[in-house]
Amino acid sequence: MVRPRSSKPGKQRKYEATAPLHERRKFLTAPLSPGLREKHGIKRLPVRKGDKVLIVRGDYMASEGKVVRVDYKKVRIYIENVTRKKADGTEIYVPIHPSKVMITELKLGDPLRERIIERRRG
């Protein structure tokens, strides 16, 4: 599936709703912190499990923690310190959109991710 060049909102919504999982990974990008930006020479990367992020918008603003889970289907991430209690008392993670967070620490050590950073640095 190719991203539509159309500016029609309906076509954009349809593309996002029907995109295959390997393309949904692109929807999960988040900006890097200023320190990481200087160090790696890139502005944004897809969020991964194990990255440390800072929430910059919404009810949980200024909360920081590790990414526990990344949901490609719903295009949401779950962060370890961001929970709420259900009516029966059990705690669940609150889904956060990746555009509302900033990556403060990358989980490196994976050769694939390091290759991505090198490629994007140009």
Q: Would you write up a description of this structure?
A:
The chain is of the alpha+beta class. It has a single domain (about 10-120), classed as SH3 type barrels (Roll). It is about 25% helix and about 30% strand. It has helices at about 10-20, 20-25, 35-40, 110-120, and strands at about 30, 45, 50-55, 65-70, 75-85, 90-95, 100-105. The strands form two sheets. Strands 6-5-4-3-7 form a five-stranded antiparallel beta sheet, with no helix packed on it. The longest helix has 11 residues, at about 110-120. The protein is globular, with a radius of gyration of 16 Å. The mean pLDDT is about 95.
Task: Please render the helix and strand layout as text.
Layout: H1 9-18, H2 21-24, E1 29-31, H3 34-40, E2 44-46, E3 52-55, E4 64-71, E5 76-85, E6 91-96, E7 101-105, H4 111-121
Antiparallel strand pairs: 1-2, 3-4, 3-7, 4-5, 5-6
